[in-house]
TrEMBL record:
This is Hydroxyacid oxidase. Keywords: Flavoprotein, FMN, Oxidoreductase. It comes from Heterostelium pallidum (strain ATCC 26659 / Pp 5 / PN500) (Cellular slime mold). FMN binds at residues 83-85, 112, 134, 162, 233, 255, 288-292, 311-312. Gene3D superfamilies: Aldolase class I. Glyoxylate binds at residues 30, 136, 171, 257, 260. The lineage of its organism: Eukaryota, Amoebozoa, Evosea, Eumycetozoa, Dictyostelia. Residues 4-362 form the FMN hydroxy acid dehydrogenase domain. Pfam families: FMN_dh. InterPro entries: Aldolase_TIM (IPR013785), Alpha-hydoxy_acid_DH_FMN (IPR012133), FMN-dep_DH (IPR000262), FMN_HAD (IPR037396), FMN_hydac_DH_AS (IPR008259). GO terms for molecular function: FMN binding; oxidoreductase activity. One of its GO terms (cellular component) is cytoplasm. The active site is at residue 257. CDD domains: alpha_hydroxyacid_oxid_FMN (cd02809). Belongs to the FMN-dependent alpha-hydroxy acid dehydrogenase family.
């Protein structure tokens, strides 16, 4: 067996480069791409780098406690795994490897509706504790209802309703490459239905199958068919956050879908403080998009997020080293956050607040 040196990688970028070398071009491009000119893709990371952290000194940081809890889920640190479709393209073990890595590191994952491992298979692997289930609402409501009820019955703890995908954003590399699900792989939640194949590419799939007429009324319908908490994923406008809260959602995920939908949308970290203000403590707010460093997690929490999610870094870990690759990705971010908290002068999650972010206007009158 060839020597795998990913255990020596010191940051997430190294995983990305290694995954690019290892994966077929079509798969890597699908995972990596943003839409159109990928302005938002760059901005998701760049905006983080423009925010400055202000360290406090002479605080006993010999013990840093990163534990937290989101909607009843205990986390060893405030990071969860975002739903990403078709993980068996990255590694033959796919979603179950990701779940195991998350579980061993004391965190949790959300299974995509469009997974290459079924709702039931993952739950069996997870001993009935599979995490959250991400829902795409199909035009055929019987299919949608079936997904939700299977997830509820078999032990998923919340439904993550994705609200930013009435159509798929245009990722140009996927057109060039003629992206399709590789032979031998299926969207396992639909076993033998025609729905399980992505023969004509993803854009056609979404346009044909996914309900682009979805509105807030459908959120009420969803609530009527399940007792599980409902989390809306893909909120970017503070106005929509307000509407979501009035519809009684249990949490909001501030997300621009990893910059794969509307290009030139703002970065998620830029809108986060405004959404937190609009929500005003009425439900937890989670952020995803561009989180690649422990300092990014610290900044998101300082802006009021309860936790963050990562998408692509997990796919890079999975591609490079399966379960152990994902574990290494998670532990890098875990250790980076711990060090960053200590260097900033905070020893627990509850001590993180916006005073950690450098804002000269707060000090001009001192
Ligand atoms: C390859 C890929 C597939 C994705 N599939 C889904 C999906 O099936 N459902 C969903 O709600 N979001 C999906 N997303 C969006 C992620 O859940 C998440 O919002 C995004 O990846 C976060 O940004 P990051 O990759 O910069 O961490 C996908 C993202 C990527 C990169
Ligand atoms: C199959 C797609 C709808 C999955 C997705 O959300 C994405 O590619 O961004």
């Amino acid at each position: 067996m060839s020597h795998n040196n990913y255990q020596d990688f010191v940051n997430i970028d190294e995983f990305k480069y290694a995954a690019e070398k290892k994966l077929p071009r079509m798969v890597y491009d699908y995972y990596a791409s943003g839409s159109f000119d990928q302005i938002t893709l760059a901005e998701n990371q760049n905006y983080f780098s423009r925010i400055k952290l202000l360290p406090r000194c002479l605080i006993d940081v010999s013990n840093v406690d990163m534990r937290t809890n989101v909607l009843g889920i205990d986390l060893s640190f405030p990071l969860m795994i975002a739903p990403t479709a078709m993980q068996k393209m990255a590694h033959p073990v796919g979603e179950t490897a990701t779940w195991s890595a998350a579980n061993e590191l004391g965190t949790s994952m959300t299974l995509s509706s469009l997974s290459t491992t079924s709702i039931e298979e993952l739950s069996k692997h997870a001993n009935g504790n599979p995490g959250w289930f991400q829902l795409y609402v199909f035009k055929d409501r019987a299919i949608t209802k079936n997904l939700v009820q299977r997830a509820e019955q078999i032990g998923y703890k919340a439904i993550v309703l994705t609200v930013d995908t009435p159509y798929l954003g245009r990722r140009e590399a996927d057109y060039r490459n003629g992206f399709r699900l590789p032979h031998g792989l299926k969207l396992q939640n639909f076993s033998d239905l025609p729905l399980a194949d992505v023969e004509g590419g993803l854009n056609a799939y979404v346009a044909t199958m996914i309900d682009s007429s979805l509105t807030w009324k459908d959120l009420d319908w969803l609530k009527s068919i399940t007792k599980l908490p409902i989390i809306v994923k893909g909120v970017m406008s503070p106005r929509d956050a307000e509407i979501a809260v009035t519809h009684g959602v249990d949490a909001i995920i501030v997300s621009n879908h990893g910059a794969r939908q509307l290009d030139t949308a703002p970065s998620t970290i830029e809108v986060l403080p405004y959404i937190v203000k609009a929500v005003n403590g009425r439900c937890p707010v989670i952020l995803d998009g561009g989180v690649r460093r422990g300092t990014d997690i610290l900044k998101a929490l300082a802006c009021g997020a309860k936790a963050v999610m990562i998408g692509r870094p997990v796919l890079w870990g999975l591609a490079v080293g399966g379960k152990d690759g994902v574990k290494r990705v998670l532990s890098l971010l875990h250790d980076e956050l711990k060090l960053s908290m200590a260097l900033a002068g905070v020893k627990s999650i509850s001590q993180i607040n916006k005073s950690l972010i450098w804002d000269p206007s707060e000090y001009t009158k001192l």
